[in-house]
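Example with several molecule types.
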Amino acid sequence: GQQLNQSPQSMFIQEGEDVSMNCTSSSIFNTWLWYKQDPGEGPVLLIALYKAGELTSNGRLTAQFGITRKDSFLNISASIPSDVGIYFCAGLVWATGGGADGLTFGKGTHLIIQP
Amino acid sequence: DTAVSQTPKYLVTQMGNDKSIKCEQNLGHDTMYWYKQDSKKFLKIMFSYNNKELIINETVPNRFSPKSPDKAHLNLHINSLELGDSAVYFCASSQGPTRGEDQYFGPGTRLLVL
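Resulting structure tokens for the full complex:
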């Protein structure tokens, strides 16, 4: 099946720093998504990207859909303590005949912020 | 007012037992999913149902049997539980099967098989 390579696996940063993480794939995705998971909770959608080259912001978060449709990055500016959590990229492929194959997730980036 | 709810939140059981996890969504969505998150936090889709019909069935042991009595519910029954089944199981729902951006996840069920 498809795989997403997400990096870095973990990040230890100071409050106020900017954060950057990315995902790459050997195959094309039609949609790229970025989720955040807090401890004991389910993933929550942060940003959805639909077109190659698309750049989308959500507050301090910015994500881009790579031009080749095989990669995406997520940036967080001026990190704050509540940004702590696991960030997942996910890709979606639209199946022929309608429907989709379900989300393929990266392995997550653990973000730890030191005050 | 929980959008996607799962019960139980925690489930501890012995090997060989049969158990069920329930999921309900009050969003009026047509599509529901089950995902498994392992100890390394890797999330993988298991099943997807659209309007009570199975549309995705990944390589999952046939000990796992999803059941969708109606569009708002997708339950997961697991027979003959094994140690390797220990994980967090997430239910999710979306308006339809083609747009991943509106996939809402439940809080998860933490299954521990002893």
